[in-house]
Specification:
Order of helices and strands: HHHHHHEEHHHHHEEEH
CATH class of the largest domain: Alpha Beta
CATH architecture of the largest domain: 2-Layer Sandwich
Shape: globular
Number of helices: 12
Strand order of the largest sheet: 2-1-5-4-3
Radius of gyration: 20 Å
Number of domains: 2
Number of strands: 5
Largest sheet: 5 strands, antiparallel
Oligomer: single chain
Length: 280
């Protein structure tokens, strides 16, 4: 780990960003350019003290999970992300369709979606980033670790995952989850993380194994969802999926028809803030 070079790199990248570049309010005038350290720590989920120590060259070695969060928060390119990992003494993640590093261009689009729920998902249905409304609607997905980071895994192992959907729509949603996973499996192969996820799900869920053996392969570009919120009741939303060129990541945007009851409920959801919601 090259602490000095890592500290310099973090400082220069932080100084090159404005709050509006990362979806934060512009706020009052600043004495120095760039993001504040507490803003970077908030974007990554680490403590401000920990981030300050990294910039001062006296922090412990960051984990790979923390480096991934820093790369997203500082809007690093692929080459910059790889450089960050090397400075921190870690191997560089493979650049495959299963890469979880969100490209800065995709994050710029995501940052502008403030008035409607939006998420960026990996091809394994892992939530990489979610905005305030998405967290209020679906719950905070960042709390999940291991295989449970994938909503496909949670769908077949955690009954609470299905509570967001009407009972009569759950079979359709489950088949769609598996069909999307098969797309990722076909691209990445049996020895990839997608293959590991499939093997684990087949081991723990006979239901998944039965659906997987149907060999359905579907990429969903749009859907109409009825979601069940425990405070607001049912909410009918249109779901639009925008894929990266390699289909490795998806920007998922949920919208309501103008002047509809669902639009009113989304507005109310923004007022309620981070309310606990049964995850998707």
């Amino acid at each position: 780990m090259d602490r000095t070079a890592l500290a310099d790199f973090l400082r220069t990248r932080r100084a090159g960003l404005l709050p509006e570049d990362v979806g934060l309010p512009e706020g009052s005038r600043r004495r120095t350019p760039g993001l504040r350290r507490d803003e970077v720590s908030a974007l990554t989920g680490m403590s401000t003290d920990y981030y300050i120590r990294l910039e001062q060259g006296r922090g412990p070695q960051p984990s790979e999970q923390m480096l991934a969060a820093l790369a997203r928060a500082l809007r690093l390119s692929g080459d910059e992300r790889d450089y960050l990992y090397r400075l921190a003494g870690h191997g560089v993640p493979s650049r495959t369709p299963l890469d979880t590093h969100v490209a800065p261009a995709l994050l710029r689009v995501f940052d502008r979606l403030e008035d409607t729920p939006a998420l960026v998902l990996s091809s394994l249905s892992e939530t990489l980033v979610q905005n305030r409304l998405a967290a209020a609607l679906f719950g905070d997905h960042s709390r999940h670790t291991g295989p449970a980071r994938s909503s496909v895994y949670r769908w077949f192992t955690d009954p609470a995952e299905r509570a967001a959907y009407p009972v009569d729509d759950q079979p359709r949603q489950g088949r769609a989850q598996v069909a999307g996973l098969r797309v990722a499996y076909g691209i990445a192969g049996e020895s990839s993380r997608a293959g590991n996820l499939v093997r684990e799900l087949r081991r723990v869920s006979p239901e998944f194994a039965g659906v997987w053996d149907m060999h359905e392969v579907v990429t969903r570009f749009e859907d109409h969802k009825t979601l069940l919120h425990r405070e607001l009741g049912s909410i009918e939303l249109d779901c639009q999926a925008l894929f990266t060129e390699d289909q490795g990541q998806t920007l998922l945007v949920l919208t309501a028809a103008p002047r509809s009851e669902a639009a009113e409920k989304l507005a109310l959801l923004g007022v309620l803030g981070q309310q606990r919601f049964s995850t998707m």
